[in-house]
Amino acid sequence: MNLIYHLALIVCCCIGIFQLAWADADLSPKSVIVVTSNQRPVSNINSISKKLDDVKLIIQILNLDAVTNIEHRLSHGLPVDPVQARAMVDQRIAQIGRSQLDAELRTAYLPLGTMMAYALNRYPVIIFDRQAVIYGVTDLAQAINKYRQWVEDKQGGTANE
Questions:
Q1: Domains of the chain, start order
Q2: Digit-coded pLDDT (tens) for 70-91
Q3: What is the pTM of this model?
Q4: Is the previous residue joined to 124 through a cis bond, with omega within 30 degrees of 0?
Q5: For an engineered disulfide with 31, which of 35, 58, 76, 135 has Cβ 3.0 to 4.6 Å away?
Q6: How many whole angstroms separate alpha carbon 34 and alpha carbon 20?
Q7: Distance between CA atoms of 124 and 24, rounded to whole angstroms?
Q8: Within 13 A of 56's CA, how many CA atoms are on the CB side?
Q9: SS3 helix, strand, coil % of the chain, rounded to 5?
Q10: Longest dimension (CA), the chain
């Protein structure tokens, strides 16, 4: 009888732990889009990725300075003479590759398009599961904790961290 009691207790504990882990996963976002700039880099990306290894979390970092970075890379140190400057820019584009540069430019304009699509008016901003937004936070761990608290409050449950 004692063995059956212990087995039942172990099974109940395991189910409880599983339910806590499952509830924790339900509070975690599935996707995160961060729109920021060079002056406001995002921190704790790797620690979040490791912490949420069992949860499939897609993190996309969009830098509003990406277009400026490309422009700087193409125009840095150009001569004053417009003909020579044009030749040097053409040479740099050839080194990068036209299709590669086009792809980089499409990616570089994505942050601005995202800001417009979500009607966002300031940054840094973190978008969770395309439904919740947190402004002004660049620490991803802190932002995810705030998001989880919001989900918990919305569901009326408790967050298990």
A1: 30-155 (3.40.30)
A2: 999 999 999 999 999 999 999 9
A3: 0.73
A4: yes
A5: 58
A6: 28
A7: 26
A8: 0
A9: 60, 15, 30
A10: 94
